[in-house]
């Protein structure tokens, strides 16, 4: 039995077909990168893994059970896009992520002190110690992204969903965050699904790279056919280099 199993999943909004016949499995600890043209349903796929929305058709299961009825951190699925709370300071955001791991969602006494120490360590690792007492809205886009990643990672989820997590970062910070993510992944054996528009990043970080694309076009009505997984590349052991993919799928370069 696979850790994550997606079986013949379809999604529609009104009369628009977004995804169709999506089937894929992932083992625990796998890092799955997802690429594809803009608007082809990659974020929709992540939202269904989170159980934020239900598929129109088909089934998604995690460890053999259905995904949660509602987004639920206790199930161990965390989406970096939604993790930051605007009414909490940067430091409290990291503390709050730890709180989700406790049964009652609140840390007390010694546990709180230890969580505070870990939050401070995380602040150093993501380079936000100097803004610990500020609110997220006062941070730059790149800093907000770092906070979201730090917060999602603090929860040590079993499944981490990342939607273009490094998009707003300068190249140096981006490389640092890559290293940081890989370190934490090794420590926790979490399973990661990451959407990115950067093919090089997809192949560098991923064990696999899934390509979402429309298998065919209806020129009369482009909305009638949804996207699906057209390729599932092995990115380890010298899997197909991303340059070759660019040659085959120039549309991916445009993102
Ligand atoms: N709740 C919704 N209701 C109606 N349409 C939606 C909804 N969510 C997404 N869509 C539409 O579904 C399509 C797929 O959106 P989605 O965000 O999943 O694509 P994406 O591949 O992640 O795109 P991008 O790479 O640009 O982020 C888009 O055309 C979007 O406008």
Provide a brief overview of the structure.
The protein is of the alpha/beta class.
Strand order within the widest beta sheet? 6-7-8-3-9-10
Biggest β-sheet description = 6 strands, mixed
CATH topology of the largest domain: Rossmann fold
Report how far apart the termini are.
34 Å
Classified by CATH, the class of the largest domain is Alpha Beta
Question: Overview of this structure, please?
Answer:
The protein has 2 domains: 4-83 and 157-254, Rossmann fold; 86-154, no CATH class. Helix content is 34%, strand content 24%. The protein has 8 helices and 10 strands. The strands form 2 sheets. A 6-stranded mixed sheet has the order 6-7-8-3-9-10, sandwiched between helices. Strand 1 (4-13) and strand 2 (16-26) form a beta hairpin. Helix 2 (90-99) packs across helix 3 and helix 2 (90-99) runs parallel beside helix 4. It is globular. The chain binds adenosine-5'-triphosphate. Adenosine-5'-triphosphate (ATP) is lined by residues 13, 18, 36, 38-44. GO terms for molecular function: ATP binding; ATP hydrolysis activity. Keywords: ATP-binding, Hydrolase, Nucleotide-binding, Transport. It is an enzyme of class 3 (hydrolase).
Features:
255 residues, alpha/beta, Rossmann fold, 2 domains, 6-stranded mixed β-sheet, 4-stranded antiparallel β-sheet, 34% helix, 24% strand, binds adenosine-5'-triphosphate, ABC_SmlMolc_Importer, P-loop_NTPase, hydrolase
């Amino acid at each position: 039995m696979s850790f994550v199993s997606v079986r013949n999943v379809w999604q529609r909004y009104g009369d628009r077909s977004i995804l169709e016949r999506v089937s894929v499995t992932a083992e625990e600890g796998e890092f799955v990168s997802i690429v594809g043209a803009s608007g082809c349903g990659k974020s929709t796929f992540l939202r269904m893994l989170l159980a934020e929305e239900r598929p129109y058709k088909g089934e998604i299961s995690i460890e053999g059970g259905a995904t949660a009825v509602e987004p639920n951190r206790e199930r161990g699925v965390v989406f970096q896009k939604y993790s930051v709370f605007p009414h909490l300071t940067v430091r409290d955001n990291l503390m709050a992520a730890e709180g989700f791991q406790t049964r009652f969602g609140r840390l007390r006494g010694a546990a709180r002190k230890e969580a505070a120490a870990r939050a401070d360590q995380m602040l150093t690792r993501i380079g936000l110690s100097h803004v610990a007492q500020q609110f997220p809205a006062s941070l730059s886009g790149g800093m907000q992204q770092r906070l979201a990643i730090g917060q999602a990672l603090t929860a040590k989820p079993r499944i981490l969903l990342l939607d273009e997590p490094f998009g707003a970062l300068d190249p140096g910070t981006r490389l640092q965050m890559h290293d940081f993510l890989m370190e934490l992944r090794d420590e926790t054996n979490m399973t990661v699904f990451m959407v990115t528009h950067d093919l090089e990043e997809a192949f560098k970080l991923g064990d696999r790279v899934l390509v979402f694309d429309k298998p065919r076009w209806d020129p009369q009505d482009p909305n009638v056919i949804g996207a699906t997984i057209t390729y599932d590349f092995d990115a380890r052991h010298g899997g197909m280099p991303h340059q070759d993919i660019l040659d085959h799928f120039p549309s991916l370069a445009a993102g």
